[in-house]
Amino acid sequence: MIAIFGAGAIGCWVGGQLAAGGADVLLVGRARVMDELAGGLHVSELGGREARVTPKVTIDPKDAAAAQLVLVTVKSAQTAEAGATLAAVLPPDAVVVSLQNGVRNADVLRATLPGRRTLAAMVPFNVVRRGPGSYHRASGGALRIDDDPAAAILIDACRAGGLPIEPRRDMLAVQWAKLVMNLNNAINALSGQPLAAELADRGFRRCLAAAQREALGLLALAKQDVAKLTAIPPRWMPRLLEVPDRVFKLLAARVVAIDPHARSSMWDDFEAKRATEIDYLQGEVVTLAERLGKPAPINRTLVRLVREAEAGGKRDFTAGELRAALGL
Description:
By secondary structure, the chain is an alpha/beta fold. Helices cover 43% and strands 16% of the residues.
């Protein structure tokens, strides 16, 4: 059995795809989300493919005790709590996989789950909830996971479900690459626009380019590799973002497809009045800068703006307003 612990949008979609491929899937999540799945789970994706499945659902973590594999999909701030909960119920031979944003969650799980095999993995795509029990993959990309024999269960289940997955020996570089891409989460949430509309605006793209360039410069100083996850090398991305709108539209379609209605998970957090993952995105860049004794004014300002928005502050910036706030 494969258990998805903390099943929200990503967990439900991935679990649905694995179940569609024949895997025995258990979704463990909040009562509100699990109640919506009483009539089944509908998953769809950009190419039009869709499936309706009926995975097992529960709100009780103890039901995951029989799982061979547990995919952790909770928000980063909840990782230590999730690990402690799982430590009390999982057998010693269970394999745990972090399917989360950020670069430290697998290490947090390893610290709270001594003796279990814990792997890092990365989800590159965006998932949106289209209605009760219905989740849609709104952008492209393949899962990545530590190249480890313990990953075989997930790799086999993904391939059976038609979900691309790639074993990697450089997962930290992969996670940093995803984090650099995810620096757009804050900009998208502060814009209040769908991802496609926000990225179509050169002004917002310049904000993202500045945040990425700052992060990539710090990573170079730290001698931390950043993996290539798209057709464009990560260090070229800020330059691509700054080209005129007409040119960007032509080039971006070759990099990643985005559903016109997709929004960032941080925008979802704003809407639900939940704490965001800003400390695990821009906050990681600020932490790296502090460790190196360097400034990070763009990402530090974005952390402040998101925290203000979490407290009820402005979250409908125009591109010009956001550029001004960032000193661009």
